[in-house]
Batch of 3 targets.
Target 1
Amino acid sequence: MTPDPKQPTASGSSRPTIRCTRRIQFCAGHRIWGHENVCAHLHGHNYVALFHATAPELDPLGRVIDFSVLKSRLGRWIDENWDHGFVLHRDDAEAIDAVRRVPGQKLFLLDGNPTAENMALHLLDEVAPAELAGLGVEVVKVTLWETENCFAEVGR
């Protein structure tokens, strides 16, 4: 078994924390309810989410986790809930009504505005723990790129 990445080595120095990162792309629409500018309108983005994971120890092959597991579990959740859908504030009745008028349109409701910050926080606090439960891995940071120029980061 590979030694714990946070434990002291034989020389007494601490091993660095080892993280692995999985990139997942998706397209989703939203609006920022109450926004003072153009983001008050329904629109969409090509998002890029970076999931930074760590574990108390590396697996027998020397990994935090197989990258494909992060893709299959976290990517599946994003595909089922956000990709090619709309993410809206649960109290934004006007936008919810508009989206529900489109047959088959995917809709996900957040407790707060679907800013990059709140979406990244939802992925870190709700989605990652549920999807990776029992694997001995923790997502410690989520970076969510909303555009080529703008991103939000949340972490522990």
Target 2
Amino acid sequence: MGGFIARRLLQGLLLLVLVATVVFFLGRLTGNPVDLMLPEDATAEDRARLIEALGLDGSLFTQYVAFIGSALQGDLGTSLRMRQPAVDVFLSRLPNTLAIIPWALLLAMLGQSSLWHGSCQSGACRIKKIGAGGGRHESPAPIFFMHLNFSAIFLLG
């Protein structure tokens, strides 16, 4: 049991590093954040000052190390759109997110059971055949895809 927990913690840590890396590089692919933060009529001095203040004047590796170091200390930066600390923006929206989780789970379970029942009524029990290797493999994929669908509905609706 201890080995299982250690493996899961290691997998979780690896996932966090991977997500942080993807977030960092996607943020750099979208362009220069200074262009988004400053008005169009900003001077070159204003741009240089903001680039230095944000730490964007260093190499990509230096910026990545600073990003990870700040994240480990709980500083997730400033929201470009809200002009507030990102942690504060996240925490202000957390209660609404937690409020819709039970409803999303309920809809996902109802949707999954409807799909499951419907597929077996038509004589094509492919979902059960896929999961025939073990009970724990029958359900995760449909729940995952239902979660993605309902997340899109709640986010776009």
Target 3
Amino acid sequence: MLELLDKTLEEGWTLRRACRELELGEVRAHRWLARRAIGELADRPPGGPPMHGLLDEEVAEILALFDEWGETDRSHRKLAHRGSYLGRVSVSPSSVRRVFTLADKHFRFLPRPAKSARRPFPDWVEYKPNSIWIYDTTHFPRAGSAALIIEDLVCGKWITAVVSVEETSTQVEIAFTDALEIEGLLDAVHARLDNGRADPYTDDEHRPILLAVSDNGPQMTSGQPESSWRCARSPSTLAAPVRLY
């Protein structure tokens, strides 16, 4: 377009007449001629330099965070937050991800965990009713309560259940005391305590009455229920946890 404009001007046409014939805006023609005179006729990148663009030192800090904490966080979101509360760089997670993409930085996938080997039950356990119990807690969020259920693993008998708004060692003690009484094992526990054969504060793995297995939640692993009915043994080291749904 500028070459045609130059030819018309060389033949004596005025700029206004040439622009009218070429259907070119006169203001645009003046702007193009001025840009050609200073060597900036090529179009500039759209948008111009953003005021919120990342600085070189910020990019370097983001890459340093990847090298130092990438194996730990394994997420551009976590690295963005870590850089903020460490006071090293304050950028958005999307900016961190963009820097990693441009630098060809990628998180490594965690290796798959090895298959766990099931630990056998202790030698003293007999696979018969009232020898192995399983228990777990089912939550009812709408009702704001939870139900602790005890079941016999061998025969599948639902022994007892305790529904409460709390999930503490108290509910565990109540449930197991009720279950021992229902199955006629509570008298055996009391007999061992009465004749001096058992000390509830002494861990003797050779004298349990039954094995109680679950996911070993905090309400079960606390010292209170363990010392209350130690004869009904429920250690976390004897058998693999069994969840009941």
